[in-house]
User: Fold this.
Amino acid sequence: MIDMDGLIEEFSGLTNNEAFLRAFTDRVLLLNPDPDFEDPFLGNTQRRDFLPHLVDMVSSLREDGPTRRIFDLGAGKGEIVDLVLDERAPMGTRVSIEEPNPNLMQRYVHRIERSQRLQLGEVFPGDVQSMYHLDLPAEQDLVLAIHMVYHLTDWRCASADPAEDLRTMVGFSYGLLRPGGRLFLVYADQTRALAGLVGLYFYRTRWAKDPSLARDLARIYRARNSLLADGGIVPELAIQYPDRPAEIEVHRLPSMFYGKTLADLAAMSLVGELIGADDEPFELDKLVAAGEFLSRHGAEVGLRRDDEPGPRQGMWCADQPQVVVIITRTR
Assistant:
């Protein structure tokens, strides 16, 4: 079994928002100290894998014409500013952000305010659902929705409809685009990813008070792949926006999570659906279940130690594949 004592102590007494910071910011986004290494982060290959697609899109924005506008939904702490926007976006690009976690929001705002290239646009300190009633103009050149779909659905509610929640979010995001604008959406394929399979394990075993919740969680995973990876969202957008035709481009990427210890990977596996974006107390049982899954079922997610020379040598890694979806408003 994995030694989880130190991790349990670290996460004891935390809220969900605080636990997310420990798992995501401190581990998934663990910085790489080697400037010559190709990946800016040690904790994951997700950014390295999707960044070329995002770089191409940001680099294609022209300097001439009206002020370029980017809207980052579920923005996180704004590492995307340092990785892409502050170098590639046209001078004066206006960046608006939505983020429910106030600590992450503050870090993002600080990044833009210190930039010599970007302007701070509108700031929405809440979840994306709180914006649906707003009558926002269709003026964005690029809308980012990077790993933010995990908190769209309160799937523990009997009436929850993950497909409808996803259609609504994508429809709202698409409605923000000016002609030629693009939605850049990234999510983990939780049907095969460490975080997804740990979630299902938690709700299928003794750790969950209601094992039937695993069925509802699996519905979310299927809905995402059907609408996004398989392109089912395009005819849905045609119904909602008959005068704004859409094109879709999909890339499936075999990405990974890396942890210094197996306990680190256990913490990282909770950043999908298992940590809520709220200030409710974090449930330590989720960490224990994650450690148990890795001990018993690690082979299902390719658990192994990296033996390649470099800064990740000796770290534990597991599969966390992702899907990049690019939706363009053609006119």
Q: What stands out?
A: The chain has one domain: 5-329.
